[in-house]
Amino acid sequence: MPFRSILLALTLVCGSPALAQFAGEHPTVVKLYPNGAPGSQARRNEPEQAQDYWVKNVHDPSLTIYPADPAHANGASVVVLPGGGHGLLVIEGEGVKAAQALNRMGITVAVLKYRLAREPGSTYTIEGDAAGDTARAIKWMRAHASDYKIDPARIGLMGFSAGGELASLVANYPKEYAKAPRDALSKVSGRPDFQVLVYPGPLGAKGPIAPGAPPAFLVAGSKDRCCGPPTVTIYQLLHKAGVSAELHMYAGTDHGFNMDRSNLYSVAHWADRLFEWLSDNGWLDRNGKRQN
Questions:
Q1: Tens of pLDDT, residues 19-59
Q2: What angle do CA 219, 204, 193 make, to 5 degrees?
Q3: Which pLDDT tens digit goes with each residue over 130-174?
Q4: What stretch of H or E contains 251?
């Protein structure tokens, strides 16, 4: 490969030294529900549990916001949903690292800690509470767009595994989720402008998708028995609904490759394909000009 091509590839993945240093340096945490999440008020003050790469015992959902470097910010933003089987959140590999990679693309990122429906003893539901937190996160970012200098019409949703299920539910099957509080965000749209589904779980492929769903980028491994087939199914459902979608299925690859957790060169660089898709479709255009 010519040296210039190698340098370009490294820049796309790693960014410039200055930009790489900035990414993730200044996160801020905001509570998604100022008065406590509906049905969770009694437990909102319980501390979260965290160890190594994961977080659980989430009863007070929050957004950790990683602003893009102002020198490179393009106005796009993404809410990131870590996976973890709805029993925990893989906050490092599918949250922090995702935020850093997207920051290098000039995107402001909000990593969502949502309530976990399959944690032992949980009383929460996936389609009610967790999906409600997801839609609420989009609403919050859209309502606070001017605070973070982002375009309210270029807010994406990116989910890994269980987080991909939630992203698909909110993007492709929008509705008023249960227990949504009546407040200033009630009238704000909770549907993303684009969606990135990274080995999404089977609940995200539950049936026909209504026309008008946001454009989608989907990626998974061909050896992923859990989430490879649902990824293909969601793509087919989007195609049938006339929704623009791009699908990447990597040979010899199983579940949980996160942003860069693979020895395969193509899989380790899948974020380059995402950067290209976002660029080609105008989501990274500072002027907000998009192709049809």
A1: 334 444 679 999 999 989 998 989 999 999 999 999 999 99
A2: 70
A3: 999 999 999 999 999 999 999 999 999 999 999 999 999 999 998
A4: none
Q: Which residue matches tokens 């008020």?
A: 41
How long a stretch of residues is the chain? 292
Q: What is the DSSP string of 105-165?
A: TT-EEEEEE---TTSTT----IIIIIHHHHHHHHHHHHHTGGGGT--TT-EEEEEETHHHH
CA 218, CA 220: separation in Å to the nearest integer? 7
Measured between alpha carbons, how far is residue 156 from residues 3, 144, 193, 229, 252 in Å?
34, 15, 5, 23, 29
C-alpha distances in Å from residue 278, one per residue of 1, 60, 94, 216, 219: 25, 32, 19, 10, 14
Question: Rounded to two decimals, what is the model's pTM?
Answer: 0.89
Q: Residues 101-139, buried b or exposed e (16+ Cβ, 10 A)? A: bbbbbbbbbbbbbbbbbebeebebbbbbbbbbbbbbbbb
CB contact set of 165 (below 8 Å; sequence gap of 6+) = 126, 159, 200, 201, 202, 203, 204
CA distance 159 to 94: 8
Angle among Cα 231, 217, 90 to the nearest 5 degrees reads 70
User: Coil, helix or strand for 228?
Assistant: helix
Q: What is the DSSP letter of 89?
A: B
Write down the residue that tokens 């249960």 correspond to. Answer: 178
